[in-house]
């Protein structure tokens, strides 16, 4: 099978940052699905894993943690899918990734692809949808059915992949969304997705939120990095909650959090598959829920750009774009 992988961890502009490979087609065991990959998305996690370091892989490593495709075969313990099913998923960071013609994936973290979307549109959704959903409804304990209607949430990094679906999920739950964006195209993007207010993360978040007539906000989601930690602590309401997806090395003073009895939560969507938690199947249910909401017209894909085909050259271009940190929505590669 065709695949795109690496043996060395190189700068993105290196001509051998990715390699076009021909590898054996894997065989499903246990709860595995064998999926014929149709489209893959590139996320910041891909860039972090590929970041330059001295390590050398004896066997080529295949990255990629967002995919859509068609089930070709199933393992003996599979009950949720059958060959021919169209699926989408974010995968398992401990296993071989989706940048290949075929991939093995545990059925418990796979969802049925939204029927109304193309494979490219569907591939843009899984990782970011799981991340935003778990961040809001599992970590911050916001009620997805609207019992917290009228509460406020500040989404820092709102124009990226996680923020783009996060805005929609927060609005669906009845929240007032304050989104950060700085460029005209990203400001328009977050407004299109439903943001009630847009503030510029290059200026004081505290001053801008206070200018909206709000002393505090009920919830804060940090979907880029922790450079705005001090502002987040000042803006979170007493007994409110902050959720972050950044494994930062920046200082995070906790005194202000303690004085407010505010909570800090970490979201890492690979935790369930990495640790084989008893509730792994929740990601299957979550993705099926997102697909249903997409097909009902309640949510939309966050796809912004498609590159064809899936090969080493184009994957390098995609990583270079993600490394700029100026993403708007999702970038997808389609077809081998």
TrEMBL record:
CDD domains xrefs: AL_MDR (cd08252)
Domain Enoyl reductase (ER), residue spans: 16-333
Stored SMART domains: PKS_ER (SM00829)
InterPro entries xrefs: ADH-like_C, ADH-like_N, ADH_Zn_typ-1, ER, GroES-like_sf, NAD(P)-bd_dom_sf, Quin_OxRdtase/zeta-crystal_CS, Zinc-ADH_QOR/CCCR
Sequence intervals crossing the membrane: none
Keywords in alphabetical order: Acetylation, Cytoplasm, Metal-binding, NADP, Oxidoreductase, RNA-binding, Zinc
SUPFAM superfamilies for this protein: GroES-like (SSF50129), NAD(P)-binding Rossmann-fold domains (SSF51735)
Stored Gene3D superfamilies: Medium-chain alcohol dehydrogenases, catalytic domain (3.90.180.10), NAD(P)-binding Rossmann-like Domain (3.40.50.720)
Main localization category: cytoplasm
Subcellular location: Cytoplasm
Domain of life per record: Bacteria
Assembly with partners or alone: Homotetramer.
Similarity comment text for this entry: Belongs to the zinc-containing alcohol dehydrogenase family. Quinone oxidoreductase subfamily.
Protein name: Zinc-type alcohol dehydrogenase-like protein
